[in-house]
Write a structure and sequence with these properties.
eight-stranded parallel beta barrel, TIM Barrel, binds phosphoenolpyruvate, 263 residues, two-stranded antiparallel sheet, globular, 3-deoxy-7-phosphoheptulonate synthase activity, alpha/beta, 3-deoxy-7-phosphoheptulonate synthase, binds manganese (II) ion
Length: 263
């Protein structure tokens, strides 16, 4: 179902009034984790002001350490909904299991399956049964074929509103958090009709690299970006070093426009 042979024309995923996979480059932005009402409201305002189309933020955080901040859970989803309404932006947040999926469907417009859960097949099937748009991130060490087969699990249960997201893969390189696989963009476009986003934040782990990788992703044909933006990255509870501050995000958005028009 995910293959180009099964469906020739590009899939366009609609999240409220936002279309992903058409002619526009869609920028989804917001903090890594939902920390407080004030933090998400500020982020939402900046995302909106600079031209971001969808607000992101994690309420269920699958952290490497069980002692790291795990997210505000349902309270966080409520904050997201409020901030999204306030800024007039649709919202997306990661789900990690069926209970969190059920909650997210009540409060938000789109869900995300993170890299660590890309092959959580029961979760993929549950999202496939839920009628909600989904961002499916590439697993830490997943091949493109494994990633597309994960998407197939969602489509085969009846949900075709799937957007893929390249977020960097594990290589021997340690200078960046992950290695951004830019070739995945044209390859996925060749193999599948699904839209593809690039996450320049988790793929680099460094805010100073986000702008150049974003431009490269758009030049390579990405349908959009998933970017971490925090009102005060130094104080972020999660992923501060890779988060853009409002000025950084504004400057990214300005430089992205000519690149998007050139493709
Ligand atoms: C995220 O987007 O907040 C996240 C945890 O990303 P990933 O699953 O790509 O590590
Ligand atoms: Mn993060």
């Amino acid at each position: 179902l995910v293959s180009r042979e099964a469906k020739e024309e590009n899939t366009i995923v609609h999240v409220k009034d936002v279309a992903i996979g058409g002619d526009e480059v869609t920028v989804i932005a917001g903090p890594c984790a939902i920390e407080s009402v004030e933090q998400v409201m500020k982020a939402a305002e900046e995302v909106r002001r600079c031209g971001g189309k969808i607000l992101r933020g994690g309420a269920f955080k699958p952290r490497t350490s069980p002692y790291a901040f795990q997210g505000l859970e349902e309270e966080g989803l409520k904050i997201m909904r409020t901030a999204g309404r306030f800024a007039g932006l649709p919202t997306v947040s990661e789900v990690i299991d069926e209970p969190s999926l059920e909650l997210a469907c009540q409060y938000l417009d789109m869900v995300q399956i993170g890299a660590r859960n890309m092959q959580n097949f029961r979760l993929l099937q549950a999202v496939g049964r839920a009628r909600i748009p989904v961002i499916l991130k590439r697993g830490l060490s997943a091949t493109i074929e494994e990633w597309l087969m994960a998407a197939e699990y969602i489509l085969s249960e009846g949900n075709s509103q799937v957007i893929l997201c390249e977020r960097g893969i594990r290589t021997y390189e340690t200078a960046t958090r992950n290695t951004l696989d830019l070739s995945a963009i044209p390859l996925v476009k060749e193999l599948s009709h699904l839209p593809i986003l690039v996450d320049p934040s988790h793929s680099t782990g460094a805010s100073r690299l986000v702008k150049s990788m974003s431009k490269a992703a758009v030049a390579a044909g990405a349908d959009g970006l998933l970017v971490e933006v925090h009102p005060d990255p130094c104080r972020a509870l999660c992923d501060g070093p890779q988060s853009l501050d409002p000025e950084g995000f504004e400057s990214l958005m300005k430089e992205l426009t000519p690149v998007a028009h050139a493709v």
